[in-house]
Amino acid sequence: MYEPNVVGDWQEYDEHAGLRVRVHRLELAEPPRGRDDAADGLTYFSLRVTVENRGSRHLGIHLEDGQIDVRIGPDGESAFLDWRNSQFIEGFDVYPLRRATAVLYAAGAESSLGLVDVQVQLRVEEEWTDRRLWSGGIGAHEGSAGAQQGAVRDSLAHQVSVFLRDQAEEGTA
Q1: Which stretch of 54-68, 86-100, 134-148 has the lowest confidence by average pLDDT?
Q2: N or C, where is the chain less crowded by C-beta within 10 Å?
Q3: What are phi and psi of 35, to 5 degrees?
Q4: At what angle are helices 146-154 and 156-169 packed, to 10 degrees?
């Protein structure tokens, strides 16, 4: 395991020349096919995992159930993963200069969404890659008292988070 990446960062894999991955677009979002009954009382959010091939040959990619782990809050509790609404990358050939994106819907206690860790382990050409970790958060907890809301909005961490999110989203369609 390497140092965690910030949500939006690209991570390259040395064992597969030109292959890189990132977790991005961590945001509050309702699932497209409706909420799962098991997520009653929880706040939904979504994230994307994009695999890009900058190499010279196509690579068969698998990013399925069990290869993405989402933890929330300071204690690293498991988020509820809504597999029914999520879209994975299952046996897809990513050709040079192409991307494939998985969209994951998860839910957790609103107070814990300020800290979200996402661990990804790709399977490339039937080989498992090393696990990679991305850390970020969602400002869902900012809607409390007005004075606290202003303090959170003006905090350095919030400013850095907004800047990194904006930088990560540039150039993506």
Answers
A1: 134-148
A2: C
A3: -75, 145
A4: 60
